[in-house]
Amino acid sequence: MVDSQDERFFSIATLKKLIYDSKLRAKIIQAFVIIISFSVGYYLLTNIVTNLRQMELPFGFGFITSTAGFDVSWSLIPYDPSMSYGRVYLVGIVNTLVLSLLIIICSTLLGFIVGIMRLSRNLLVAQFARWYVEFFRNVPLLIQIVFWFIVVFSTLPAPRNSFGLFDLFFLNNRGFYFPSPVFQPGFGWTIIAVLLALVCLFILNRWSQTFRKLTGKQLRYYYPSLLALLVMVSGVFLLTGKPLDWMVPTLKGFNFEDGSYIPTAFAAAFVAMTIYRSASIGETVRAGIQSIDSGQLEAATAIGFPPIKTLRLIIIPQAARAILPPLINLWLTIVKESSLAVAIGFPELVSVFMQTSLNQTGRAIEIVLMVMGFYMCASLTISFFLNLYNKRIQMQEG
To answer: Which of 122, 199, 217, 330 is most buried, with most CB under 10 Å away?
Structure first.
């Protein structure tokens, strides 16, 4: 009898421990949510497949290897109509990523400038930045994209009357034309020299930081080292026989041939999205800088720090902790907003795969799932690496 009471008491105590143990309870709930999520996903997938079979419609991704049979207006990787739908998918991904990456870089740089201008003591500069933010942030992005495409780039002169610069660069209503490099055998040695130069700069930078922490002295190594490494790379390039030529765009008939070009649809989407997102990033930068105690600026001024160095070495590194989390969200939004370029015919992923390929194959579910999978993977990858960096720069307590 005593043993049975002890066993009952032990079971009750164990049950209470399971209930009130927050870590164990959290793991059980997480496992339950994962099981439910996969179960719901599996049910939806099997239900879709069953319904498609009843309608005698196939479900599968075998069409990826089929010949696409249509052309793509602009591609950064080799493509022709004899290639497969998988290649079309890859073309759309590359075009989308390149557009998004350029917008992220340029909008971030422009946003930092606008955010700093918002805090300027010059009334004209501060008001200009303020109205820049208010205007571009409150006009819908799609309208701005269409405006730049129709009102600005489509009204440029025809190729025969292009705006030219040094007979190398040409701008017209079809796009921006510029020389393209032609790599000759032996250029790989120049690439190796460039990589070695970057490694040397990285090592010198780390060594300089260590030396400054130990001695408190700043080494002025950057410009002499950069010059020496530039001479080294140039020497390798000359010794290997200058293995690099250029193809210059030439007007033949009604259009330019040779060289490379950027279509007006790309330019319109890039300009509109860069300006639109720079306004939001500018406000994020302004708020992050204002979150820093004003005593930091006063102390830097008191010890004779110039304004630019104060901003670069004191204010921005501390403000980055407040700026980076919302900035990550803005960068993720840029990747997804790149799909709006479909409105002006730019061949990004939605345009070439979710429209043209879908219309030809009729595989709506498979194609939509593939497009959704790309955007999800791209967003999760960006978020993962930036969150690691954000965790690294945050203040550590204790």
So the answer is: 330
How many Å apart are CA 386 and CA 325, to the nearest integer?
9
Decide: 349 and 95 in contact? Cβ < 8 Å: yes
Q: Which of 332, 368, 351, 371 is nearest to 103 (CA)?
A: 332
How far is it, in rounded angstroms, from Cα 19 to Cα 17? 5
Closest CA to 350 of 262, 260, 269: 269
Angstrom distance (rounded) from CA 114 to CA 285: 8
> Per residue, what are the HEC states of 52-97?
HHHCCCCCCCHHHHCECCCCCCCCCCCCCCCCEHHHHHHHHHHHHH
Global pTM reads 0.79
Where would I find the beta strands (DSSP E) of the chain? 163-165, 169-172, 175-178, 180-183, 244-247, 250-252, 255-257, 260-263
Bridge partners for 244 per DSSP: 183
Q: Which of 81, 140, 61 is nearest to 352 (CA)?
A: 81
Q: Which amino acid is at 99?
A: L
* CA 373/CA 352 separation, integer angstroms: 16
The structure tokens 């007006």 sit at 264
- In this structure, the strands spanning 255-257 and 169-172 are unpaired
CATH entry 1.10.3720.10 includes domain 85-179+248-393: yes
Instruction: Render pLDDT for 227-276 as a digit per residue (tens, 0 to 9).
Output: 777 887 788 778 887 887 888 888 787 778 877 888 888 999 999 999 99
CB count in 10 Å sphere of residue 132:
18
Q: What is the pLDDT of residue 15?
A: 62
Instruction: Report domain extents, the chain.
Output: 2-54, 85-179+248-393
How high is the pLDDT of residue 377? 87
End-to-end CA distance of the chain: 53
Structure letter (DSSP) for residue 177: E
Phi, psi of 256 (to 5 degrees): -90, 145
